[in-house]
């Protein structure tokens, strides 16, 4: 009978190897519950089972090496290989049973029993491969059964903890995984060494030694090599898990950023309407007195359309910077969208609110310098108080908005407190008209009429295209009804380009029909004349319809031409380069100076109807007209008189040398189909 002694260092190594390998197997198992690796679940499951089986197998054979067996012992290679596959297969099925999202108690127990039996089966199969010349092995059955129960019990506890750990987040303390691996590893160790204590080596005589005894040194080398591979796998899986955790942390951070972005305006970085709807009702529930200051920039759309969205965005950012200079810490500044802002403050005293409103408006009203342009802008502000002017967020916003429109009606660049007596009907009508105009632009409810120009002898010499609104209820509506509001809101840009498109389309048709109604003139507002894409759009639409550029004339008012004389000269020259004709409209209503006309490359001068209306009864008016016509003619300009309504006016203008006459005497503006034959 052999008395077995153990090498303590190797025993400790076997324990460490068992725990570390179990830890690695559990790490691999965790990959099955991460979204990116669910498609590879089968391969991960097999890998986890193979590693756990290796943990059991390595621990067993390192533990065997720790024993002091007599010289000449060896391990049968067949039993050695079989023992590993028993452990690996049992471990794989055990992990599979416990890899579902919901693990029932019966499933957990079956998996634990299967793993416990796999550990025991591997141990005792491996023992069958142990050959010591001159000895045979016998077992104490009670200790054997006890060792199997230790393996099953340890597997049960470790699976229970593992199932609990699986439903926690990746940020859970690592000690849970370490604890689970330690329990499972120690159950393998406990089963092994208890199983070894059940062994009794009995001396037998006359045993024939096998002719091929396994080389002991080769076996030890194999164990060391496998240990090295396990360490390499541990490092790889640990790095992989670390990468996954980093990705999870990054994803969590990204989710937080997205949640923040949902309640933040991306341009100004201010809280947005989503933030308002989420948080302000809580403040109202608390019952604290607060004030809503609804701020809207005056003519911002005009700036946006004239200079482009990039300049408009920079302007918004600079406006926010200026407003921040006058805000206090207890104020919340919200970007509602576009050019609308909301300031919420606990300041509710009327005198202090007036001071605050004036400071904000003054800060906004200074000049802004963006992209080599000087931009001036103002704002209108409406103020509503809680709870005096509303009991909920919606009421307060509506009433602050009403007050803001009242400030606009006062001339803009001002503030107004909500007053129930405010003429809300007028505000509602204006808002309704604006909505209808937006729909008219979107649905193309406009149509062009044409007013002819004639020589004093009655020969048609051109047309002026004039816009009309084909209102769904009111019918044909003249520009006096809507032109001011589309200029103030910036819709004039879109409408102006529509007019340009339709006029060129009509010119193309008349060119094909060889109808000489040319030139056809269109009016440009100050905003459109200064629009950065004007020349590109003009060139594009002329090329699109393939028309002769000289058949198109651009009319610009005298005031617009003189507003930025250098820019006007530059634009006129570029229009001339395209071949387009140019007319100065409403001459006599602005600067009325010939000193600038000599510098402007224009073709036609249109005298405002104010000089025509009483020319037949006002001799001084006739003298002024004579001077204008004479000087314009000497400058090489064609002179057109607007607003001519009777034959006497025609006779006087013909006598003074006016080349063209336009007015109701000859024709009102009419659709293209009603024009007279040229």
Could you give a quick summary of the protein structure above?
This is Diguanylate cyclase. The chain has 678 residues and is α/β, with parallel strands linked by helices. 55% of the residues lie in helices and 15% in strands.
Strand content: 15-25%
Number of strands: 20
The largest sheet is: 9 strands, mixed
Distance between the termini: 133 Å
Q: Helix tally?
A: 21
Domain GGDEF: 288-420
Keywords: Coiled coil, Membrane, Transmembrane, Transmembrane helix
InterPro entries: Biofilm_reg_signaling (IPR052155), EAL_dom (IPR001633), EAL_sf (IPR035919), GGDEF_dom (IPR000160), MHYT_dom (IPR005330), Nucleotide_cyclase (IPR029787), Rev_trsase/Diguanyl_cyclase (IPR043128)
Transmembrane segments: 6-31, 43-62, 74-96, 108-130, 142-163, 175-196, 216-240
Structure description:
The chain is α/β, with parallel strands linked by helices and 678 residues long. The protein folds into three domains: 8-249, no CATH class; 273-422, 2-Layer Sandwich (Alpha-Beta Plaits); 453-464 and 487-674, EAL domain (TIM Barrel). It is built from 21 helices and 20 strands. Strands 12, 13, 14, 15, 16, 17, 18, 19 and 20 form a nine-stranded mixed sheet that branches. The protein has a five-stranded mixed sheet with strand order 6-7-5-10-11, sandwiched between helices. It has a two-stranded antiparallel sheet with strand order 1-2. A hairpin with a 5-residue loop joins strand 12 and strand 13 (460-471). Helix 2 (41-65) runs antiparallel to helix 7 (216-262). The longest helix has 47 residues, at 216-262. The chain is elongated and about 155 Å long. 36% of the residues are buried. It comes from Acinetobacter qingfengensis. InterPro entries: Biofilm_reg_signaling, EAL_dom, EAL_sf, GGDEF_dom, MHYT_dom, Nucleotide_cyclase, Rev_trsase/Diguanyl_cyclase. Residues 430-678 form the EAL domain. Residues 237-264 form a coiled coil.
């Amino acid at each position: 009978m052999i008395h077995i002694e153990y090498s303590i260092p190797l025993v400790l190594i076997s324990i460490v190897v068992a725990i570390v390998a179990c830890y690695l197997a559990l790490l691999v198992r965790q990959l099955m519950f991460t979204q990116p690796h669910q498609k590879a679940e089968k391969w991960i499951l097999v890998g986890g089972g193979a590693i756990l089986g290796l943990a059991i197998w390595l621990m067993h054979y390192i533990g065997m090496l720790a024993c002091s067996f007599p010289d000449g012992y060896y391990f049968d290679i067949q039993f050695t290989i079989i023992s590993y596959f028993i452990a690996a297969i049992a471990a794989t099925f055990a992990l599979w049973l416990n890899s579902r999202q919901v693990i029932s108690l019966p499933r957990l127990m079956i998996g634990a029993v299967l793993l416990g039996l796999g550990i025991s089966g591997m141990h005792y199969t491996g023992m069958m491969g142990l050959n010591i010349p001159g000895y045979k092995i016998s077992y104490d059955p009670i200790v054997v059964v006890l060792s199997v129960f230790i393996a099953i019990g340890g597997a049960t506890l470790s699976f229970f903890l593992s199932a609990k750990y699986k439903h926690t987040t990746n940020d859970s303390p690592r000690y849970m995984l370490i604890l689970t691996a330690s329990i499972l590893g120690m159950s393998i160790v406990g089963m092994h060494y208890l199983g070894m204590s059940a062994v009794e080596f009995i001396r037998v005589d006359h045993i024939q030694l096998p002719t091929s005894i396994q080389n002991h040194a080769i076996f030890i080398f194999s164990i060391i090599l496998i240990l090295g591979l396990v360490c390499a796998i541990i490092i790889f899986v640990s790095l992989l898990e670390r990468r996954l955790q980093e990705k999870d942390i990054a994803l969590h951070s990204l989710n937080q950023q997205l949640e923040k972005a949902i309640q933040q305006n991306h341009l100004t970085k201010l809280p947005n309407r989503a933030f308002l709807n989420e948080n302000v009702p809580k403040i109202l529930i608390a019952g604290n007195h607060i004030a809503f200051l609804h701020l809207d920039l005056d003519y911002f759309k005009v700036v946006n359309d004239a200079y482009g969205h990039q300049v408009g965005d920079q302007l918004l950012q600079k406006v926010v910077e200026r407003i921040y200079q006058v805000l206090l810490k207890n104020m919340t500044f919200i970007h509602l969208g576009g050019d609308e802002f909301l300031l919420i403050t606990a300041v509710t005293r009327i005198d202090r609110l007036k001071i605050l409103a004036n400071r904000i408006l003054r800060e906004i009203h200074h000049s802004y310098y963006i992209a080599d342009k000087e931009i001036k802008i103002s704002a209108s502000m409406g103020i509503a108080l809680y709870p005096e002017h509303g009991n909920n967020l919606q009421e307060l916003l509506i009433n602050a908005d009403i007050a803001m429109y009242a400030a606009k009606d006062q001339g803009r660049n001002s503030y107004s407190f909500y007053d129930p007596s405010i003429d809300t009907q007028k505000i509602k009508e204006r808002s309704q008209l604006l909505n209808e105009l937006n729909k008219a632009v979107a649905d193309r409810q406009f149509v062009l009429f044409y007013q002819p120009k004639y020589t004093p002898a009655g020969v048609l010499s051109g047309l002026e295209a004039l816009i009309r609104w084909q209102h769904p209820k009111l019918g044909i509506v003249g520009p006096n009804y809507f032109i001011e509001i589309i200029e103030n809101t910036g819709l004039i840009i879109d409408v102006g380009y529509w007019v340009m498109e339709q006029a060129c389309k009509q010119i193309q048709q008349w060119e094909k029909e060889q109808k000489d109604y040319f030139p056809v003139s269109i009016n440009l507002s100050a905003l459109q004349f200064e629009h950065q894409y004007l020349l590109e759009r003009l060139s594009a639409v002329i090329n699109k319809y393939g028309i002769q550029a000289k058949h198109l004339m651009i009319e610009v008012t005298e005031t617009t031409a003189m507003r930025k004389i250098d820019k006007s000269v530059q634009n006129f020259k570029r229009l001339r380069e395209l071949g387009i004709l140019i007319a100065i409209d409403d001459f006599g209503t602005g600067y009325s100076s010939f000193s600038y006309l000599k510098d402007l490359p224009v073709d036609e001068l249109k005298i405002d109807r104010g000089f025509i209306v009483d020319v037949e009864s006002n001799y001084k008016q006739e003298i002024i007209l004579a001077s204008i016509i004479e000087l314009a003619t000497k400058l090489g300009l064609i002179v057109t008189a607007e607003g001519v309504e009777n034959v006497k006016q025609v006779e006087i203008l013909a006598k003074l040398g006016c080349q063209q006459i336009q007015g109701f005497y000859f024709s009102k503006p009419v659709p293209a189909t009603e024009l007279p034959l040229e």
